[in-house]
């Protein structure tokens, strides 16, 4: 299961669903191991339809399909799990609803939050923003590679680096361990999402 968090693609909220579907399918061909569907502007029905449309592609690629925030949609659409943010349901409540078989991830920004997620039974955590990123500009200061390494240290639970991750910045996470990364623009904003995903996956595997 740990390797299935190696390269997570988080969907960009912007743009029409048709373009998003094409980009995600290309990224899956490139080696993405998990897809987190994040569309906060969508209605429950719109999100449900999108997740259902992605289900065959993620299943064929052997990748996890995770819904951001919406436990109800994750259950209804047959997703593999849910990703919780600060305003989501508590982790313990989500686990009761989802059961032990489904995956639960947690957004974290501090090392203590990573430890709390692990103690609460999360399957993975996302830590960031590690590098500067437009989506968090003026909201959160980037944490840097040193703090990411501290968050990862001693954790059996995978801790994924998020924020400004791309083929150019990924080497900046070394020499510490990198259990996985979560990427948005570094794949979906690339003219060739499949090639971008393939190169990121190669870099991650070579840097084991």
- Hey, roughly how much beta strand do the residues contain? 15-25%
Number of domains: 1
How would you write the strand order of the largest sheet? 1-2-3-4-5-6-7-8
Query: What would you give as the CATH superfamily?
Result: Aldolase class I
Under CATH, the topology can be stated as TIM Barrel
CATH class: Alpha Beta
Largest sheet: 8 strands, parallel, barrel
- Series of secondary-structure elements, N-terminal to C-terminal: EHEHEHEHEHEHEEHH
What does the average pLDDT come to? 93
Distance between the termini: 16 Å
Class computed from helices, strands and strand pairing = alpha/beta
Descriptive notes:
The chain has one domain: TIM Barrel (Alpha-Beta Barrel), CATH 3.20.20.70. Helices cover 40% and strands 17% of the residues. The protein is built from eight helices and eight strands; from the N terminus they run βαβαβαβαβαβαββαα. It has helices at residues 17-30, 44-61, 71-77, 91-98, 111-119, 144-152, 185-188, 193-206, and strands at residues 7-10, 34-37, 64-68, 81-84, 103-108, 124-127, 159-162, 180-183. Helix 1 (17-30) runs parallel beside helix 2 (44-61), helix 1 (17-30) packs parallel to helix 8 (193-206) and helix 2 (44-61) packs across helix 3 (71-77). The chain is globular, with a radius of gyration of 16 Å.
